[in-house]
Amino acid sequence: MGFPSKAEIKRALKKLEKAEGTLARPANPTALEKFRWDIQQKFVGYKLDKRVSQKEMAEIIGVDEGKMSKILHNRLEEFSTDRLITLYERLNPHIKLRVG
Question: Which residues does 55 contact at the CB level (< 8 Å), separation at least 6?
């Protein structure tokens, strides 16, 4: 088995450009970006700690599974910070958030 051709690599890279995986935290995040990242990570932590599926989490917080996927993959463009907090409070009503 040899190395892929340049054309094959180019096709693969083109496909990856359209892939929707998890977005990383920005390299030099603002305080708000850090705060939103921390909230998003709480969702991920809850999922891992409680060993629930994405679908189960969506049902608990009252959103469709697509929106839950966006939250878990840090694709937060359509969510205000207030909404993220409100949704997380449905998982953990005793949440304590801190900025900074």
Answer: 65, 68
Which CATH class, in words, describes the domain spanning 28-100? mainly alpha
Structure tokens at 63: 């959103």
In the chain, where the domains are located: 28-100
Could you give the CA distance from residue 5 to residue 94 in angstroms, rounded to a whole number? 55
Question: Which pLDDT tens digit goes with each residue over 34-83?
Answer: 999 999 999 999 999 999 999 999 999 999 999 999 999 999 999 999 99
- Cα–Cα distance list, 26 to 18, 31, 48, 49, 52 (Å): 19, 11, 23, 25, 28
CA distance 21 to 70: 9
Please, how many CA atoms are within 13 Å of residue 49, restricted to the half-sphere of its CB?
Answer: 8
